[in-house]
Each structure stands twice: as structure tokens, then as C-alpha cells.
Design a protein that fits this description.
Largest sheet of chain A: 16 strands, antiparallel, barrel
Structural class of chain A: alpha+beta
Order of helices and strands of chain B: HEHEHEHEHHEHEHEHEH
Strand content of chain A: over 45%
Number of strands of chain A: 18
Shape of chain B: globular
Low-confidence stretches of chain A: 1-22, 59-96
Low-confidence stretches of chain B: 8-20
Mean pLDDT of chain B: 90
Distance between the termini of chain A: 62 Å
Oligomer: heterodimer
Radius of gyration of chain B: 21 Å
Shape of chain A: elongated
Number of strands of chain B: 8
Largest interface: A-B, 72 and 77 residues
Strand order of the largest sheet of chain A: 1-3-4-5-6-7-8-9-10-11-12-13-14-16-17-18
Order of helices and strands of chain A: HHHHEEEEEEHEEEEEEEEEHEEE
Chain lengths: 478, 301
């Protein structure tokens, strides 16, 4: 039927355009002959078109003709392996997007909040024996608190780079750039490089974002050694070994903007880490690692009271070196996370600081040698006992050691001129319980027995938390 | 260009290209694509399968062993349509392997080779765990497997052109055996047309559509949302007047809700392998569909 339609149309067209035929019989014969030629020509064309349509239809049903691979290989433009073509043949999404927004990056937003009640005044909370890390530490204020809203935007830049920004919008109406980095996509031989601001790859929990933590807050060790999380402003290079055992090496350097380093007029130090990982049968997987960080601090100031109880500003200048080991073990029957999962993780950190400690820099400004060796560790386990329910237990401990303060040992100042540096062993037990209606929502309760303060009673802290995620579906690291 | 730069460039190019005699290292996200790669690649492929039939592929850990396998893979075969969105992007990212980045010849998505059913007209997470491009559980319609096999053969040829004839031949062989099997299955399964069933998650939809099974209801009220007691008793009310012949369950599903329902509406629970390896009989793709049909046909009328 299809092949007759154009012919009929052509006939109509011909009769309309051509002047009415004269009585000369040969003229009619000529026209008839021309018409016949056209008819045959068009029939051929239509057949060819039909064949082409059929070919296209079969090509989209089964993308490639496996019978004639050499043609596909030679004809580069039509190669079925061409990702452009593969993309073009994906089933079209039902929602049509305008061209202007088609390249919009993936956007996700995390909404969170807490309710806090403590038996002790949270304003007096501090980790005794350690210089304050001026980060996100402590149980938070009593009553309802809006947590940071975490806005993440990411997309591939081009075939070589991908970009990510994660901004934290705080309840104090401040916007903090948590991470903003570009990462390579196409380096050879298992290398990946990152540049910008990003959470350092040291330890296990350092790279994990707040909404993916298994407890409301970070372990004491992270709070005291890195102010919660160590942020690098610089570059990171990682290399993954081409082995079945997971072996990853990483190195970073940056400007040292965050505690325990300080910004100085040069690049500040480096961080190195190695991670190993693998499986133990079908149900168990593990990862273990070691990290080392070597940075400088210059005039790292903090508030303390002097021997008379009035506030003074002291400051440290020198080297700060931290090493850490971490291990994580996860178990779930046949790797099926949906039903049950057990996760055990622990980290140990050790920091040595060597340099000068200045006392009351705003008035007396006395300075002498300072040396401290401090450590901390935690061990936690989280058990998902039903598809949506989890319970967790964590033990935290810190050892401040007895810092060697030159100003005290030389007799210039009494020991109680540095009350914050008094030797102490803070510890804490945390019990967590959460309910996860879906992958995108979590409601949690946590109870802590907190011995952060050297003096006074044990703080009993009760907190409730909600975490909701909207927008692009995030993928979480191990 | 200096000789040094020349040799560095040459090394990089050589390092990126596939050694002539090495097998293609394949990382398949599910056992089905692993089995298909083995069918098509024979001993020219070295297949590692990321998950088992006892896992819900929506929810998998991006565990270190998988990152290590992604690092050395020449070809990543994923289902796509966002089925693996919670973990595969991390594997690809952490692998540092440019060969398997989405859009590269080493990244293959099965779902983009077939027409997906149930592409939602409304994208809203209040509707549960929905997939914007459509339902990704395509493997239980053998016509889909045939389409994926054709595209995968072409991809293997493109990755390892020196062995093009080998893959073309294997592809042809598989296609012939598969077409034959489809005819066998379809004549065998004619008795299943219009048989009423209840499914667990809507991941048996391709099977139902292929065999003409009549899906009366799903135990999950919305995709990925476990059934509440209220929803289950509603199902009992709705189904007791016209009960299904069977309740279909996948090997990885928690059987509790289905068993509960089964007792009340007098319909047996049929546990289907769903994926290669989901039952002792489902050793490969042929076994998967053989066993699926045998289990469906074993239910008395």
C-alpha cells in the first residue's frame, strides 16, 4: 500500500503542473513513458526507504547486528560500542526536560535537627587535659537545635574532571563551605587526584559526612585531635593497587587552615594514609588502615584561666604529628543489608606536639618549651536487628598524658597557671537507637554517660535527632 | 617532542590498551550479567560477580573487595536504570579506573538496551523507591536477555577487536540456543496465561508480562516499602473472594509477610530464583528460566 501512495500523489501533481495535452499522440506517448520511468524510480526509492526503516527498527530492538561485526568495526560512526549511540537508544524518560536544565548538577539536601537534654550545664563542657580544638565539639545546647542543613551539588565537568560542593547552612544563618573540590576521572593506572577543600582521607570516620554517622556526634578522639573532622585545603593524590586485595595509598598537602595546624605563609605539612580491605567469606567484609599527619602550628591560640582564675590567652607554636590506625568489620548474612547487619569499628590516635608554649600572650607573654604526647581511641558497634531498626554502643577514651611545660618545670609559673593542661582521662559510653523508615529518613535517640570534665559529676546526656535527605540519591562509601 | 615525552606517552597508551593475549576482565553487578558475559565471552573473559541472588541489589555495600575488582576491570556490566545507584557510583569513583567510567566503552548498561516497563509519570519519593527510567528488573523476560546479548556481543568485539570473530560466533551460537529455548519455554508456559498471582516487590513484572500472568496485587504497598499489618489485612480482604493461584517471592525476599498472607488466602508461596544462583537449579541463564517455569508449573490448578 505504502508504495502506491507517492505514485498516486505524483500522478496528481503531474497532471496539475503540466499543461493540458495537445492532440498529438506522440506527445501523450512521451509523457506516458516519462511517467512510467518516474513510477519505477519512485517504487525503487520507496522500497529502499522501507528497507531502511526496517533496518532501523531492528537495530533499536537489538542494538547491534552481531552477524556483521566487521562492518561495525570499520564504520566507526555506527560502532555499537559508541557510548553516544548507546545513550541515544536508552528508553526516553517520561518527563521531558528543557535543554537549559538538562545539564543541571545533581542536588541533594540534608535536613537535620536535635533535641538535647543534659544533667550538667553544657556551657561548662570541655575535654579536660587537652587544648581546645575550636571545632564542633560537645553535646550542643539544651532544648531544640536546628542542625546544619547540608546542600550538596555535584556533576561531571567534562570527560576529565568532576566537581562537588557541599555547603553547610547553620542555624546561626552562616554558610560554611564544608567541601568544594574537583576530582579527576581519567588518570591512568589507578590514580585519582583531588584539589580544593575536602575532608582528609586520614582515619576511617574523617571522610564520613555528618548525616551518615552512626552516632549523633563524633568520637572524643576526633573532637579533640581534629575539631570533629580534619579539612584539607589543598590537594590529594590516591593510588589504588591493581590487586584483588584492596590496597590504597594516599598523600595530601594543604595550607593547614584547620586545627591542629594553622595557616602560615607557606604550604603546611602533609598527610599520608594506607588502607587495606577485603572479604572473609560471603557475609563479612573489612577495611583497616593507618594514617600519619605532620603539620606545623604557629601562634595557635586558646583561652585558659591563669592561676588566679582570670581568663588569659595562651598559644602554641611548633610541630604537631598525629598517627592513627583504624579498622572496620561488617557482617550481614550473604551480604544482604536489607535484613540484618553488624558493624564493628575502632580507631586509635596518637598525637605528639613539640614546640613553644606562650602564656598570656596579651600581657605577660612568657614563652618556653612544650611537649605533649596524647592519645585517644574508641570502639563502637552498630547492629541492625530488623530491616529498619538499629542499635549501637560506643566506648570513648582519651589519655591527655602529662605535658612537659617549660614555664612550669623552670619554676617561672605554678602548675595551676595551665588548668586546661592538667592530666586527665576523659571517657564516655554512648547508647544509640534509631529507626529508618526509608533510605532517606532516620530518627534517632542517644544516651551518653559522659566523663569529659575532670571535675564535677558525670554528665548524663539524652538526645533525639532527625535526619532527612531530599533530592538526588546519594551513594555512601564503605 | 623530546624522546622522553615520546616514551612516556607510548607507555601511557600501551598501559591503557588491552594486552593482546589477556582475557577481558569483567565486573558484573549481578549474577545474570555475569552468566551472560560467560556465555558470550567464553574463556576470553574473566568474570567477577559483585552480588549474589540472595542480596537485594538496591542495597549493597561499596565494600573494598568490590572497589579492588573495579580497579582492574576492563568492562563493567551494570543493570542501570538506577538499580545500583546506592553503591555503583562509589565503586566507579573509588576505583580510579578510567576504562569503566560511565560513557566509556568499558561501561555497559543492560537496561538501556531494552524498553523498560513502568516508567513513572510522576517522580516523587512519596511513591516509594521508584526508578525514573522505569523498572530495572529486566532479566526474567528472555526477549530482554536476547537484546542485551546482542549489544554485549558488539561491546566485547569493540573492546577486543582481535578476537572479533570469536565473539561474533559465540554471540550467534547463544542467540540460536536462546531463541530455541524461548520457543520451548513459551510453548511450555502457555498454560500460565491469565493465571492470577500476587507478587512481593514489583520486580517480577517482566516475568508476568512475558508469560501473561495476571498480577492481582503486590505485597509491598509501594516499591521498597515493607507491608504494614493494615496493608496485609486489606490484601486478605481483597484477595479472599478471588484468590491468586500463587504468591511469587524472590530468593532474596524476607518470606514472613508472604507466608502470613499465604496461610490466610490459601495460596502457596512460590520462591523463584529471580537471579542466576537463586536456586541450586539456576546455574546459568537457561537454568534460571527453566527453574522459574518449572516452579510456576508445579503449582496445582
Amino acid at each position: 500500500m505504502r508504495s502506491f501512495m507517492p505514485v498516486a500523489a505524483l500522478a496528481a501533481l503531474t497532471s496539475a503542473i503540466l499543461p493540458s495535452p495537445g492532440n498529438a499522440a506522440d506527445e501523450i506517448a512521451t509523457l506516458r513513458a516519462e511517467f512510467e520511468t518516474l513510477k519505477i524510480e519512485y517504487a525503487d526509492r520507496v522500497t529502499a526507504l522501507e528497507a531502511r526503516i526496517e533496518e532501523l527498527e531492528s537495530a533499536s530492538a537489538g542494538k547491534a547486528d552481531s552477524g556483521s561485526p566487521p562492518r561495525n568495526l570499520v564504520d566507526g560512526q555506527n560502532s555499537p560500542s559508541d557510548p553516544q549511540i548507546a545513550g541515544a537508544q536508552e528508553a526516553p524518560p517520561s518527563t521531558s526536560r528543557s535543554t537549559a536544565s538538562a545539564f543541571n548538577p545533581a542536588i541533594s539536601l540534608i535536613l537535620g535537627g536535635t533535641f538535647v537534654n543534659t544533667s550538667e550545664d553544657p556551657r561548662s563542657w570541655r575535654l579536660s587535659g587537652f587544648t581546645p580544638s575550636d571545632g564542633e565539639v560537645g553535646p550542643g545546647e539544651r532544648s531544640f537545635n536546628l542542625d546544619e542543613s547540608e546542600l550538596a551539588v555535584s556533576a561531571n565537568v567534562d570527560p576529565y574532571f568532576t566537581g562537588t560542593m557541599i555547603a553547610a547552612l547553620s542555624a546561626e544563618d552562616e554558610i560554611e563551605v564544608e567541601e568544594a573540590y574537583v576530582r579527576t576521572l581519567a588518570l591512568p593506572s589507578g590514580f585519582t587526584a583531588k584539589a580544593g577543600r575536602f575532608f582528609s582521607g586520614l582515619g576511617y570516620l574523617n571522610e564520613v559526612h555528618r548525616h551518615a554517622w552512626d552516632f549523633i556526634d563524633q568520637p572524643f578522639a576526633y573532637q579533640v585531635f581534629f575539631g570533629g573532622q580534619y579539612t584539607q585545603n589543598g590537594v590529594q593524590v590516591k593510588w589504588l593497587a591493581p590487586t584483588d586485595l584492596f590496597i590504597e595509598l594516599g598523600a595530601e598537602s594543604g595550607n593547614g587552615e584547620t586545627f591542629p595546624a594553622t595557616r602560615r605563609n607557606a604550604t603546611n605539612g602533609g598527610t599520608f594514609f594506607v588502607h587495606f580491605g577485603g572479604d572473609l567469606g560471603d557475609s563479612t567484609s573489612w577495611r583497616a588502615g593507618a594514617s600519619y599527619m605532620d603539620v606545623r602550628a604557629a601562634d595557635r591560640a586558646y583561652e585558659d584561666s591563669n592561676q588566679f582564675g582570670s581568663l588569659v590567652v595562651d598559644s602554641f607554636t611548633g610541630k604537631s604529628r598525629t598517627w592513627a590506625v583504624d579498622a572496620v568489620l561488617k557482617w550481614s548474612p550473604y551480604g544482604d543489608l536489607a535484613r540484618r547487619q553488624l558493624k564493628v569499628q575502632g580507631e586509635y590516635m596518637h598525637r605528639r606536639e613539640d614546640g613553644q608554649l606562650a602564656f598570656d600572650v596579651e600581657a605577660l607573654n612568657l614563652s618556653d618549651a612544650y611537649r605533649s604526647e596524647q592519645s585517644g581511641w574508641y570502639l563502637q558497634t552498630v547492629f541492625q536487628f530488623l530491616p529498619r531498626w538499629r542499635v549501637g554502643l560506643r566506648y570513648d577514651a582519651l589519655d591527655s598524658g602529662s605535658p612537659n611545660v617549660g614555664l612550669v618545670s623552670s619554676g617561672q609559673l605554678p602548675p595551676d597557671a595551665f588548668p586546661l593542661l592538667r592530666s586527665s582521662n576523659p571517657e564516655r559510653i554512648s547508647l544509640m537507637f534509631d529507626w529508618n523508615p526509608s533510605e532517606f529518613s532516620r530518627l534517632r535517640a542517644q544516651y551518653d554517660w559522659d566523663d569529659a570534665r575532670a571535675e564535677g559529676d558525670r554528665d548524663r546526656i539524652f538526645r533525639l535527632q532527625y535526619i532527612f535527605g531530599i533530592g538526588a540519591h546519594g551513594a555512601h562509601k564503605y | 617532542m623530546s624522546p622522553f615525552i615520546h616514551s612516556v606517552l607510548a607507555l601511557l597508551i600501551l598501559g591503557a590498551a588491552l594486552p593482546a593475549d589477556a582475557a577481558i576482565k569483567v565486573l558484573a553487578t549481578t549474577a545474570d550479567w555475569g552468566a551472560l558475559a560467560t556465555e558470550l565471552g567464553g574463556d576470553r573473559v574473566n568474570v567477577y560477580i559483585a552480588t549474589s541472588a540472595l542480596q537485594d541489589v538496591h542495597r549493597v555495600d561499596a565494600k573494598p573487595s568490590l572497589v579492588a575488582r573495579a580497579r582492574t576491570a576492563d568492562l563493567l556490566i551494570a543493570t542501570g536504570a538506577d538499580l545500583e545507584i546506592g553503591w555503583l557510583p562509589i565503586l566507579v569513583q573509588e576505583s580510579g579506573n578510567r576504562r569503566i567510567q560511565p560513557g566509556s566503552p568499558g561501561y555497559f548498561e543492560a537496561a538501556s538496551q531494552v524498553k523498560l516497563l513502568e516508567a513513572p509519570t510522576r517522580l516523587d519519593r512519596s511513591l516509594g523507591d521508584i526508578h525514573p527510567q522505569g523498572n530495572p528488573h529486566i532479566q526474567l523476560d528472555p526477549h530482554n536477555i536476547a537484546a542485551v546479548a546482542k549489544a554485549l556481543t558488539a561491546r566485547l568485539i569493540a573492546l577486543d577487536p582481535a578476537q572479533g570473530q570469536y565473539y561474533a560466533q559465540r554471540g550467534k551460537d547463544f542467540d540460536a540456543r536462546w531463541e530455541q529455548a524461548i520457543q520451548r519455554w513459551e510453548s511450555k508456559a502457555a498454560a500460565l496465561k491469565q493465571v492470577p498471582v500476587v507478587v512481593m516487590h514489583r520486580d517480577q513484572i517482566y516475568l508476568c508480562q512475558w508469560l501473561g500472568l495476571k498480577e492481582l496485587a503486590a505485597i509491598e504497598p509501594k516499591p521498597g516499602v515493607p507491608p504494614s499489618a493494615g496493608h496485609l489485612s486489606q490484601l486478605v480482604n481483597a484477595l479472599s473472594t478471588s484468590p491468586p493461584r500463587m504468591i511469587l517471592l524472590n530468593a532474596y525476599n524476607d518470606p514472613k509477610a508472604a507466608r502470613w498472607l499465604s496461610e490466610r488466602i490459601q495460596a502457596p508461596v512460590v520462591i523463584l530464583p529471580f537471579s542466576v544462583g537463586g536456586s541450586p537449579e539456576a546455574k546459568d541463564l537457561f537454568g534460571l528460566l527453566d527453574d522459574t517455569l518449572n516452579k510456576l508449573l508445579a503449582v496445582p490448578k
